[in-house]
From TrEMBL:
Coiled coil: none annotated. Keywords: Cytoplasm, Methyltransferase, Nucleotide biosynthesis, Transferase. DUMP binds at residues 25, 180-181, 220-223, 231, 261-263. The keyword Cytoplasm applies. It is an enzyme of class 2 (transferase). It is found in: Cytoplasm. This is Thymidylate synthase. Belongs to the thymidylate synthase family. Bacterial-type ThyA subfamily. Pfam families: Thymidylat_synt.
Amino acid sequence: MVSGEEAYLSLCNYILKNGNKKEDRTNTGTISVFGHQMRFDLNKGFPLLTTKKVPFRLVASELLWFIKGDTNIRYLLENNNNIWNEWAFERWVKSADYTGPDMSDFGNRAQKDPAFKELYITQMEYFKEKILTDESFAKLYGELGAVYGKQWRKWETTRGETIDQLKEVIASIRNNPDSRRHIVSAWNPEDVPHMALPPCHTLFQFYIADGKLSCQLYQRSADVFLGVPFNIASYALLTHLIAHECGLEVGEFVHTLGDAHIYSNHIAQVKTQLSREVKSQPQLFLNKEKKSIFDFELEDFELKNYNPHPAIKAPIAV
């Protein structure tokens, strides 16, 4: 079986050759396949793609945001991470409080209309500044609803109790390593209507063998060019963190995809990426003085020998 970055590139090739043309909620259009699996041996290096630069700092700050149980983009903006801005921004421009220029369908319009793009950038910069400087505005419009952090750390039951799934799965790994119930779910059907974006990476499970911790993720919807490289790195990092806390080595990250798609406005970028040679994977180093996953901050991660090809820009579909 092809593994590592070659497995990712093989998926890209397969979608381009065999994908089904489909419409989607963003009105962008995709080519997609259903059901695919990739494997990454975490002992062979950290699986951050090398055929294009993937910003590790953004991957790490987003994962820490999930781990903290946070659902407000203010923490992300404080760490110069803009990857969730559009979903919060969309809530604001659709609200009765918004009085600026029409921002309907801003994602598609900004790609086609340079004059509108300037308006959009101005409004987005104003929005970000308000989130960072106005606490009441941030509480109202920086909030994304019951997204990943909420489900991982404060899943609400029908009895009004909360479940810290992340703490419980770590305890389960420590105390009952052979269990088949080392599972965390982000898909809470009751909360889905109240999320800015229902979880794409919906469920993950851990497996321990030979003193090594492996993780399998089921991802219902996979934006293969923009999102999947982040998801691979994020869950690899999560596996390293939990293995460190539990005194285990790392094993594999297994990535199982439902609807794996390339957006129609990413096809040229994918072809550029496929024309590049794979380079050696970088190495990840954790601050060994930190014992708990919940104590880590950005400065506790070090990535060495990451020498990727240049980044490839592409628009995000909202």
